[in-house]
Structures are given as C-alpha cells and as structure tokens.
Amino acid sequence: MKLYIAEKPSLARAIAEAFGVKGGRHEGAIALPNGDHISWCIGHLLEQAEPDSYDAKYKKWQLDHLPIVPEKWQLQVKKSTKKQFTHLKSLMRKATSIVHAGDPDREGQLLVDEVIHFIFPDSQKRPPVERLLVSDLNPKAIQKALQQLQPNDNFLPLSASALARSRADWLYGINMTRFYTIKGRQQGFKGKGVLSVGRVQTPLLGLIVRRDEIIEHFVPKPFYEVTVPLAHSSGEEILVKWQPSEAVEPYMDEEKRVLSKKLCEHVIKQVSHNQAEVLEFNEKVVKKSPPLPYNLSSLQIDANRQFGLSAKAVLDICQNLYEKYKMISYPRSDCRYLPVAHRQEAHQIASSIQKSCKPLNRAVAAMDATIKTKAWNDKKVGAHHAIIPTLKASANLPKAEANVYRLIARQYLLQFYPEQVVQEQRLIVEIEGGRFKANGLATLEQGFRKLFDDPNYGGKLKTLTDKTLPKLVKGEKLPSLEGVLLEKETQPPLPFTEATLLSAMTGISRFVKHTEIKKILKETDGLGTEATRAHIIELLIKRNFIKKSGKQVRATDLGKQLIASLPAYATEPDMTAQWESTLEKIAQKETSYRGFMSPLEDSLRLQIGGPVNQ
C-alpha cells in the first residue's frame, strides 16, 4: 500500500479529488480505489518535550538548573492531535511506500519527516519515501505534481535546517525565559506570569519599545528652507530650492537641515531680484516596471494599508482562499517570482479572475499575454512561487476574501501590462554663487499604472500630479523674484502600524548599524518568516507586551519593563541575522546541523552559566 501523508486534511481531500475521489466523511484517512490511502497531519502532530520530560527536577525553576541542554532530544505526541496520530501510525505500519506531501517549505518538510522518523527510528525498517510538492490545490495542478515525485532524501537538508531552528528556539526560549523570569522576581518584578524571551519576538518588541521611546522623548526643532521663483519668458514661474553647500554644514543637523534662520534670511537677501544662470538642464525618459506578484508579507502589508486587516487576518483569509475555495496558490510563500512555464495558463487564470472579480473585468480584457515582466524567472523560484490566482473561480466570495483575492488578482494581471513611461527633468541654477534645484515630471505612457489609478481598470480615481519645467539650455539666464523662507519643524517618527511593522520585519537591516550584520540581514528573509510573522505579532499582544490603538501598535508598560531588564543583544536582531544565515547554509548543504547547534549551546552556557564544551 502506498500512503500519501498531507500536511492538512484540506490537502488530503484535494489529492483524493485529483485521483477522482470526491466528498464523503473520512475518519483519519481516505481510501483510494486501488487500495492506496491518503492521510494527514494537522500541522505538527509532534512537539518538543517539556524540560521536566528530561528530568522531573526541571518542574521547579531554579538558576542552578540552567542552561537546560538535552543530550538526546525528545518529541511527544500533542494531546490535541493524538487521535489523528494514532490513525496515521497504524497506516504507516502497513505502508510499503510513503509519499511526503507536506507544504513546500522548510516547516512543511520537517513536520512530516519528524512523524516518519518518530514511527520508524530505524532507517533500515523505514519504507521508501518520495516527495510531492503541491502549491495549487486544483486537481489538474496536483495531477501534474503527482507525475513529478522526487526522492524525499533530496530534501533532507531543508528538514535539518527546520529541525535546527526548532531546537535552537527551544533552547534559547526555555533558558532565557527561565533565567530572566527568576532574575526579575529576585529584583522585585511586579508583573504576573513569566518574562517570556524569544529569539524573534523579543527583538521585535525591542524595535517597538525603542520607537515609542523616541516618540515620547522627541523634542521638535525648527529648521528652514529657501525657495526662489524664477521668471521664464513664457510667463511661467519656476520654483527652485536652495541646496546648501559644505560651507553651511556647521549650521545643519545630521539630516542636512539648516537650523539657522538668520543664515537663510541672509541667503534670501542675496538671491532675491537677482539673476539665475542655468548650470544644468537634463531630460530623460524612464521606464518603470510593474511591481512583482505578492509573497505573504507584501500582501499582508498592502491589505493592512488598504483594508485595515491584521497580519493574522490576512493569513487566515489566504488559507481560506487556498484550502476552501482553491482560488489562490500556496499562501505562505516567501517568493515573488513565477516559473516561466506558468505563462501558458495566463489566459485561463485571467478568465477565472473575470468570473470571480467584476471590478477587474476591463483590466483582464486589456491585458497583453505576450508581455513578459521580470517576474517570470525560474532561477528565483524555489520550492514555491509567488501567490497568484488559480484556475478556480467563484463570484460569491465573502467580502474579506473578495478584497484580498482582488489584490492578488490585480498583482498578477500587472505582469501583462507594459511599463509606465515618464519623462524626468532636472534643473540646477546658480544665483550669487549658491545652487538651487528643481525637478519636473511628465507621464508619457500610463502603462500598468492604469490598474492603480483608473476606476475603469479596478483602480482608485487619482489625479495625475505631473509638473513639467519649460525647456531650458545651459548658460541661459532668468531673473529671480523675491525669495521665500519656509519655516518647518522636525517631526518624530510615526508609531508602528501592522503594515510598517511587517515592513520593518522584512527589511530589518534598516534598523541595524553594524555593517556585517546589516549585510547578512539583507541577504536573508529578515526577522521571522512568512509563516511566523503574523503569529509573532499576535503572541506579543496575547502576552500583553504590545497593544493596538486603532491602527497603531504600541508597547505596554510590561513590554517596556521587559526590554529594560534584558541585555542589549537579546533585544536586537543581530543574533537572528546570524541564525538565519546559518540555517540557510544548512538548507543549501554549506554547513551542518552540529556546526550550528554546538556554538549556540556554548553561547548559552556563557550567558547563563555552566561549563563550555571543549
């Protein structure tokens, strides 16, 4: 008997449908006409054992027990899924071969692998295992995937990477949480419960706390700008802005803003009713490509900005669109590119969009399937591709699902629209030895922007803000009119919203000063993963470390207290950068599981106490 093990019941049903078996109630598995079976996990059926499973003394939290580092790691069956585990175990004992059908990512690889290894710890007694990669739950897509099974051993590095992350998070979270909770209580910590510390959640909390502190202690400073209108022979006025030179730096802040009002008033006296000479006038045509299709984080950001949906709500909606309606591809993707072969289905997918989303009907009708954007790139597609609509259609989606589907569909259709073409102008003039600048912009071809700016194409009505400069030539002279002093005030950074917080997590390198760490973070997925970011934000809310106020995300007093009690390294993303870099190397066979875990164990012993392994 061949046994297919899906990650979730919804995928098991979809595989069964690809074999022609539809509907019906199933207790733990679906039998196929040829005697094969399809069963499933329900996410992780197994979990890391609690510390007291290794030694009963760990039930009591004591400093002299730390760090807790298992010599032989143990998994235990989750109580909530024990019944399904029992069904699956019985079938696996009877199987002559197994097809691993976990989700096509690091975590999906591990959660089925760990069940297989848990039931068959002796590899000699383990049936042969193949890997099925499914990113689209429609029957034709699954039938195609079933013809492309691969040896599961090809994916063992991916599993090892996920296993290392899981165990490392356990080691770090268990030990750091116990250590700082005990220390906090000794120092009079008044909060209830524990001071939970995590490798990702704590740096994220630190980011929010530091932003709130900057806002709270921000003292606005006045700064000044100078603009001068120039009279052109056409009767049009050209407004140019002063570009302070290096000589003015003593009067500027770190953001290059001029702080001296007196200096700016002097500049105005010098340049008003004078003569400006054109030093440079450039015009160039610039082509702007459509944005790439969505991965999960970019979709969560746009959905939060447009509809106010939380990261978790977007993930839940996407799971619904993927599992229940089968209208989008695998939603937990971290990829924004598409396989070239998928272009063959463009017309069929467009037809599904037309049936499912009336506001995009005009956009579908005007698409050009011969256009090939940079999104189509086999080299940048890994285990899964960007989130796109499937061939399945439905005109009766609930409002939230319809809104998110529309975003995904529009982003897909953009790949069949031409570039936006604009003309950019740059003017630099000199007045009394000072340099002044102006820019102009004209839209020559709207291209893909129709889908954003034109209601007929599903966009929002947007007035074009083109502003062009009259043609000028180098050496041309124009009279200057009365200069204008602009008095402004520095503003604090805005509080985080879920959209800007997700953006910060994916682009965490912006918040790091250390050059090498910044480089590592730019090359990794940032803080957290596509599958975990929404959960991490919700976890911080649940633990009362952060709270929502409208769209804003702010730290609570408890969250601030926790960050204040921790060493800096625990509240910054540097460690996560190094972890993710090494975990990716494990997945790419560039380093080993032990090469990652041994230094971590030694680091914990140094931080918390205890002998370092020699």
Explained architecture:
The chain has 21 helices and 18 strands. The protein has a seven-stranded antiparallel beta sheet, covered by helices on one side. A six-stranded mixed beta sheet has the order 2-3-1-6-7-8. Helices cover 39% and strands 17% of the residues. Helix 4 packs across helix 6 and helix 16 (515-523) packs across helix 20. The chain has helices spanning 9-18, 51-54, 82-94, 106-119, 139-146, 156-186, 201-216, 261-271, 296-307, 311-323, 346-356, 361-366, 399-413, 450-453, 498-506, 515-523, 533-542, 557-565, 568-571, 574-587, 593-608; strands spanning 2-6, 29-31, 37-40, 46-48, 75-77, 97-101, 129-131, 150-151, 222-231, 237-243, 275-288, 420-431, 434-445, 477-479, 484-489, 496-497, 546-549, 552-555.
Give a short summary of the structure.
It is built from 21 helices and 18 strands.
Identify the quaternary structure here: single chain
Number of helices: 21
The shape is globular
Q: What portion of residues belong to β-strands?
A: 15-25%
User: How big is the Rg?
Assistant: 29 Å
β-strand number: 18
Average pLDDT value? 92
Low-confidence segments, given as residue ranges, are none
Distance between the termini: 49 Å
Q: Can you list the strand order of the major beta sheet?
A: 14-11-12-13-10-9-15
The biggest sheet, with number of strands, parallel, antiparallel or mixed sense and barrel status, is: 7 strands, antiparallel
- Helical amount: 25-40%
Structural class: alpha+beta
